[in-house]
Design a protein that fits this description.
The structure is a homodimer. Chain A is of the alpha+beta class. Helix content of chain A is about 20%, strand content about 30%.
Chain lengths: ~160, ~160
């Protein structure tokens, strides 16, 4: 865990103008600042909800769980897409994904007061689309499962770079 | 619009101990305090995201959209369930629903800086389960569609009341 945290997070490679996301933007002081990392062939994000991220007593708010899955999966989509192209994350042209669809199954109440881990894998990488599946765990127990269809954002900078070649 | 807002919101009928939800709890000072109302046979929630509820520039964060759909649909599930039982909202035994699954299709970027409207209808009411479908609109244009499978929460108070009868 210490090892993985010493590396730069996927989201820290996003260009500044795409780093204001409430879920994962490093430049959003009000946001969640979710950070995602490689862990072998999976990706992992650790997040400890605040006491006010509550749903019913003792449980984490489902909308927060959806947010963790959303941002961790779009970040993971970028990481898998870079890897599929054999490129280092953050190299140009930049790869940044947005969410086309999000599905979450809440398997059991997610306990509040402990760190959550979101683990994800790419299920499909095809053209501009990456499908990512995720599991949210609390103390090793799966509490929610999610699937995100992530679509690569057309990048103004990239288009300009492409046309200037 | 003025008329609908003058009524008590669905969430204002929740018992105090179930009113701390980050999305819709009236007792959560850090939360979104989403409010849902009847509008004929549909339900409606109006919410204006803050400037920091941003995704990519100019667009509303998808996790916030998921949260609006989530809480508006569980609130709507309770309202439809009361109506199906021919009871006034807030009468005992209390009906409070939680989310079993959430699906969101993001149709287009949702513009930031305008009020959003979430409109929902019950698609199925069966036993403890209510399936609710929702559309998120900005300036009349559908930006996201959602579906929530909501399940009625067993209520400690209700069980005690039932056993004391």
């Amino acid at each position: 865990m210490g090892g993985e945290m010493s590396h730069k997070a996927f989201q820290d490679y996003y260009p500044d103008h795409l780093s204001h996301c409430y879920g994962c933007g490093r430049l959003n002081d009000h946001g969640l600042q979710i950070k995602s990392y490689w862990d072998g062939d999976e990706t992992v994000c650790t997040f400890e909800p605040k006491s006010y991220h509550i749903a019913i007593p003792g449980s984490v708010y489902g909308g927060l769980i959806a947010s963790l899955i959303d941002c961790h999966c779009t970040g993971s989509a970028a990481a898998y897409a870079y890897r599929a192209e054999g490129r280092e994350m953050g190299t140009e042209p930049f790869l940044r994904f947005v969410t086309a669809s999000l599905h979450v199954d809440y398997l059991r109440p997610t306990p509040l007061g402990v760190p959550l881990q979101v683990r994800a894998q790419a299920k499909e990488i095809k053209g501009r689309k990456v499908v990512v599946v995720a599991t949210v765990l609390a103390q090793g127990e799966a509490c929610a499962r999610g699937e995100v269809v992530a679509v690569r954002l057309p990048m103004g900078g990239e288009e300009r770079m492409a046309s200037s070649k």
